[in-house]
Amino acid sequence: MSFTSILGHDKTVKRLRAMIESGRVPPALIFHGLPGTGKFLAALEFAKALNCSHAAHREKPPAPPQPDPDDLFAAAAPPPPPPAPEPEPAPPHTDPSDSCGACLSCLQAASGAHPDIRVVDTEMQAAFLDEDESANLKIDTMREMTRWAQQKPMLSPWKVFIVRDAEAMVTNAQNAILKTLEEPPPGTIVILTVSRKNSLLSTILSRSCVIDFGALPREALATILRNGGADPGQAEALAALGSGSLEKAAEAGAFLKRAAALRPSDPARAFKFAAGLPRDSHKARDEVKTLLDLLLARGRGAWRNAEGPAKARLTALLRRTLDLKRMADRNVSYMLILETALLESERAGIKLEDLVKPG
Ligand SMILES: [Zn+2]
Hints:
Radius of gyration: 24 Å
Mean pLDDT: 87
Number of helices: 15
CATH superfamily of the largest domain: P-loop containing nucleotide triphosphate hydrolases
Low-confidence stretches: 71-77
Number of domains: 2
Strand content: 5-15%
Shape: elongated
CATH architecture of the largest domain: 3-Layer(aba) Sandwich
Bound molecules: zinc ion
Distance between the termini: 32 Å
Number of strands: 5
Largest sheet: 5 strands, parallel
Oligomer: single chain
């Protein structure tokens, strides 16, 4: 994997490559975009390309690592500069702004075991704090990250922290990383991936360089799904339903599967379909919202071609669906919302099968 595996974000990747090639990398970056658009994958590839050992011709960050096998965890002190290590010979295909995929650093990055590339997320937090996974990133976790940031890199020129879904940071956790973002130790880069930029403190936003990830173009989404093992027809169908997000495409795939398992003549199928919602309330809400979006898209399409009473029924359905979408953000049963949406859409002539049919 390398930057060539990041599809649908050509301009953004070009910007990231330019940073790597010039060696001028902002110490605090925000990768912002809808869930399922590839921000986290891009952050990993960026970190990997930055630390690839075949990047020796590039300008190095202010303080390259000072290998000291007896004292790997000590705080940074100004030691005398060591002689520059001999770079490994670059393979002929290596792009100066991308990773080679073959050096030790790239192999460690690809396996998730790179000592200087750390992912901070709720899963890591659960292991670190030895507790169940929580929806929030806590102050203790972020304080630990700032302590790691003070240590010298072990292997590479750059120490990269990727805070995944950084909107999960509670306010005091966000405050805890402000100083690291403002005065980062040399060679330290913090990347925050977020889908809702406004959930970050303005003091974090003002210290960071924001890189936007737009919705994935349909063709890129279909290619990613094909590369993930979907057959071409299925990939096209899910890409059409995915609204530029791999996550939404996967949810639509789950709908298709659940809908296919129900007989069209089954009078209770709206209830049975809704009963298949995930137990996790965040996932259930996301699925319900995706289905309401599909209903809105299908309803608007039908409304344009409808006349008379049918048009009035569809107008009412669209209004009702928008209401249900607002309710999904409040504390209302997701199953009830889904049942209501499905029953009302059938009444307006839009069947469950129509909702999950690409159009
Ligand atoms: Zn490499």
